[in-house]
Amino acid sequence: MTALCVESLSAGYRGVPVVRGVSFSAEAGAVVAVLGSNGAGKSTLLNAIAGLLGVMAGTVRLRGQDVSRQPAHARAREGLALVPQDRGIARRLTVAENLRLLPRRAGAAVDAAVELFPALGSLLRRPAGLLSGGEQQMLALARVLVLEPPVLLVDEMSAGLAPQAVESLFEAVRRVVEQRRAAVVLVEQHADLALELADRALVLRHGEQAIWGTAADVLEHPEVLESTYLGGTR
Ligand SMILES: Nc1ncnc2c1ncn2[C@@H]1O[C@H](COP(=O)(O)OP(=O)(O)O)[C@@H](O)[C@H]1O
Ligand SMILES: [Mg+2]
């Protein structure tokens, strides 16, 4: 059964839809890249799927079950995890403390995080706010991955990071998809990297879907992607 299925979803702020009529799906063991310029509605879409923002119309299904009217914590219990654009880590707490907040035996969460990202091993006592951008993003991703969610939404994982950090984050996502058969939805500014990893891609323009197809479809129509990015903000 399809891990995540989004149908005709509309969402926005104060009664005004920003994302309109978006439909796509993500299968277990596959990656969907969500692309689009700044302000296209990528974060709004992910937040609505996660339940942080109300769904104005349409449905979100997790393994066939309609969760559109369920609060975020209920969707999380059903296996939906979000790494938000602001990373969602507690900056004043240490790396280890951030991991111990998880609903998993504390030591196990720390061990699992270090196994995923060995670089975190020597940073456990450092306040998260003092980590580099790449290290913070590793922590943000580790916090979510140690819970082994079947559906993972990641918003702008690599924005502003050094190429080497970006590489190790993409590698971690690739492993999770292959080894745990997670369904991953990846919002990315690095369209080239995302399309390399992704099976399918959703291109958003002004809150509406310009393309929903295979990554190869998108690569075959570079003009669409180009105009999407050059098309600027709303
Ligand atoms: N909290 C908010 N209140 C009102 N408008 C918002 C809010 N967050 C985002 N928007 C607007 O929604 C549109 C889409 O934003 P967003 O989903 O963040 O785009 P993206 O993630 O693709 O850059 C933008 O016009 C933005 O100004
Ligand atoms: Mg965003």
Descriptors for this entry?
4-stranded antiparallel sheet, 234 residues, globular, binds magnesium ion, binds adenosine-5'-diphosphate, alpha/beta, 9 helices
Topology of this structure?
Layout: E1 4-13, E2 16-26, E3 31-35, H1 42-50, E4 57-62, E5 65-66, H2 72-77, E6 80-83, H3 95-100, H4 106-116, H5 133-145, E7 151-155, H6 163-180, E8 183-187, H7 191-197, E9 200-205, E10 208-214, H8 215-220, H9 222-230
Parallel strand pairs: 3-8, 3-9, 6-7, 7-8
Antiparallel strand pairs: 1-2, 1-4, 4-5, 9-10
Bound molecules: adenosine-5'-diphosphate (ADP) and magnesium ion.
The site of magnesium ion has 5 residues, from α1.
Strand content: 25-35%
- Tell me the number of strands: 10
User: What are the low-pLDDT stretches, counting only 5+ consecutive residues below 50?
Assistant: none
Give the topology string: H per helix, E per strand. EEEHEEHEHHHEHEHEEHH
Shape: globular
User: Biggest sheet: strands side by side, in what order?
Assistant: 6-7-8-3-9-10
Structural class: alpha/beta
Which percent range fits the helix content?
A: 25-40%
Instruction: Give the names of the bound compounds.
Output: adenosine-5'-diphosphate, magnesium ion
